[in-house]
Amino acid sequence: MGKVLMKGNEALGEAAVRAGCRFFFGYPITPQNEIPHYLAKRLPEVGGVFVQAESEIAAINMVYGAAGSGARVMTSSSGPGISLKQEGITYIAGAELPCVIVNMQRGGPGLGGIQPAQSDYFQAVKGGGHGDYKLLVLAPATIQEMVDLMGRAFALADEYRNPVMILGDGILGQMMEAVELPAEGEIPEIPPKPWATTGAEGRSPNLINSLFLDPSDLEKHNLHLQEKYRRMSKEALWENYKTDDAELVIVGYGSSARVAKAVVDQARALGLKVGLFRPITLFPFPKHALQEACQQASHVLTVEMSLGQLVEDVRYNLEFKVPVHFYGRVGGMVPTTRAVLEEVKRWLNIEQRRGEV
C-alpha cells in the first residue's frame, strides 16, 4: 500500500494491530494518550479487547494474565505510569512472559512535565524494578521505524519469552510523518506456546510463576535468565552515519539522533569530519559496532534529552579508550542543531582537552 500521514502514537497503535496484538490494557497519561484512544476503537474492529484499567498497576497485571494465556498483548504509558508498572514488569520478566510495553518519555522526576525527555533510559535499560532482569529495549527515531519495529518487538518477545520495551518520547508520539504500514490482514504467524495457561484438557497443567522459595532453585532460575540475556546480544541493531573517517562521533538515540544527524550534515559542510552512531537497541547495546564506529575518532559526544544516562554506557562500552563528552537538555527542552554544532566545534578545536572524559 502507499504511504499515509499519521501521528506517531496512532501509527504505533495500528502497527501493533497489524502485528497481531489483540489485547491492550492501559491507563491515560500524556504524551501517549492517542495510543489507547486509537486502540479503544480499533481493537474491537478486529475482534480484540481494549480495557482502560482503574490504574497502571491494574493494567500491567492484566498484561501478565493475557501474556500467560499466550495472547499477543501490549500496554503503553509514560514515565510516572511506567514507574507504577515496575512491580508487574519484574513479575512478567521473572515468569518469562512475552509482551510489548511502550514508554513515550516525558520530563521528570516526579510528575515533571508533559514535554518530551529521554530521562527514563536507566529505568528501561538497567531494570527499574527489583531483581536481576532485563528488557529488550528498542529505540526508534522516526515514526516509520516505530511501525517497522513493532512487528519485531512482538516477534522478539515470543522468541525469548521476555517483555520488550519500545522507548519513544513525546516528540515521536505527537509528530506526524508519512508512513507505510504493513499490509492489513497479513498477520505474522504466532509461534506455538505450549507453556501457556490455555486449559489442561489432554495435558498436564502449566504453571506460570516467578516465586522460588528454595534458594538453589531461585539461583538456577536467575542463571537461566542471564544466559537468555546473553543470547539476546545477537539482536543488536544500530545505524552508522558518516562514521568511516569521523574524527568526532556523536552518539544519540531517538529524537536526539534526528538532531544529531542534521548536525553531522552541517559539520560536514564546514569541512569537519563528524559522524553519528545511533543505537537502535539500547539493550542489547551494540558494543562492538560502537567500538568499530569510533576506532578513528579522537572525541565522542553523546547528545541526550537527559542529564547524562546514555553517556555512561557509551563510556563503559568504549572501555574509556576515547574521551567521551556529554551534551544534554532536560525539562522538555530539546537540543538544537546550533548548540550541538558549537559543542562539536569546541571538542574538535581544543585539542589540549583531549584527555578529558
Quick description:
The chain has 357 residues and is of the alpha/beta class.
Report on this model:
With 357 residues, this protein is of the alpha/beta class. The protein is built from 12 helices and 14 strands. Helix 1 runs parallel beside helix 2, helix 1 packs parallel to helix 6 and helix 9 (254-269) crosses helix 12. Mean pLDDT is 95; it is low at 351-357.
Architecture blueprint of SSEs:
Layout: E1 4-7, H1 8-18, E2 23-26, H2 34-45, E3 49-52, H3 56-68, E4 73-77, H4 79-95, E5 99-105, H5 121-127, E6 136-138, H6 143-160, E7 163-169, H7 170-174, E8 176-179, H8 215-231, E9 238-241, E10 248-251, H9 254-269, E11 274-279, E12 281-283, H10 287-293, E13 299-304, H11 310-317, E14 324-328, H12 337-349
